[in-house]
Amino acid sequence: MDIYLHFKDQAAEAITFYEDVFKTKPAQIMTFGQMPHDDNTPVDDSIKDLVLHANLQINDTNVMISDSPESLTSPRVIGNNVALVFNAKTAGEALEIFQQLAENGTVLLPLEKTFWAELYGMVKDQYGVNWYINFL
């Protein structure tokens, strides 16, 4: 299964942030301005630099990311019905990633020992994405 994250106009910023946090290879990114030209549906200059589609590999998961300009899609609603789970390989990795995601975000549950994991915590990052960090 893959994941798709939609942003209003911060996709490029979020991609750079996630590349740094998860130490990934650079994402493959296509902007609206790189779409094939179509005289019937020209791309407005205001969205040419926004992300049409990007692929970012976090461990074995393909995370797809795009901007969703209101002129092209229905309104984007940030909710709590979706969370991304990151299974850290070490306690140190769990702590580092949790701290980076929490910077300018909100800690929903501190990273701590639970009955099912050595470390588990929940954080909403600065882009409104919910993350569950797990180290078994």
What is the structure about, briefly put?
It contains two helices and eight strands.
Account of the protein in words:
The protein is an alpha/beta fold. It is 18% helix and 35% strand. It is built from 2 helices and 8 strands. The protein has helices at residues 11-22, 91-102; strands spanning 3-7, 28-31, 51-58, 61-67, 83-87, 106-112, 119-124, 130-135. The strands form 2 sheets. Strands 1-4-3-2 form a 4-stranded mixed β-sheet, with helices on one face. A 4-stranded mixed β-sheet has the order 5-8-7-6, with helices on one face. Strand 6 (106-112) and strand 7 form a beta hairpin. It is elongated, with a radius of gyration of 17 Å. The two termini are 22 Å apart. The mean pLDDT is 91.
